[in-house]
Design a protein that fits this description.
This is DUF4919 domain-containing protein. The chain is of the alpha+beta class and 223 residues long. The protein has one domain.
Length: 223
Amino acid sequence: MKKLSLCFLIGFLCLSNTVFAQETLEIDYPTIKEYVTTHPTEFQELMQRFQANDSLLTRQDYATVYYGYSFTSAYQGSMNTFSDFFELTKAKKYEEAYSAAQEHLKSNPVSLQLLYHLYELGSMLQKDSNETRGYAKQYAALLTTISLSGDGKSEETAIKVICVADEYQLMYIFFRVGKLKSQALINNCDLMEFESSEYFPGTQLYFDISRSLDYTSELFNKK
């Protein structure tokens, strides 16, 4: 349960090796927010195409899906911990855990955490291969898209994520980070310091968590 299956891992790491030569995606939150709030039908159609694994989606489409989700009413920032899923997994009630993860995915279709575990559990439980491959494709597409939002070397070029849990997916699955030494909040960024990384040239990574911080601030201001 802690690692991706060998075949998927090899394929994914081959994909990750090509990412660093690609151009960084420009993620403009105001523009994305305007699109989501003024064109909700079009955004929902784009989300449905993502969920259906439409092969014609572009990298910018994936970026709009992922970051745009944070401007929908379903978004909960970093507050959704999927505790029932993890409790079921810990109790080795894997069928129930799989169903719980699928239910959560209905309201949070861009959760890297859920997609990762659905692929893992689906493979272990020998679920329909098309279904599990679908989760793997969505996971890999989002992960590589997020990695293109910045190089992670400074606050100004931090990798943009919409929840803290996604930082760990980037660190441990994409960059293959070794032991995490410390974590610090610097303005709108999480600064992660670690011993080593197989796919990142350094021992520090900056993640822009401004969307999650803004959501939390707005939530408390409503009270």
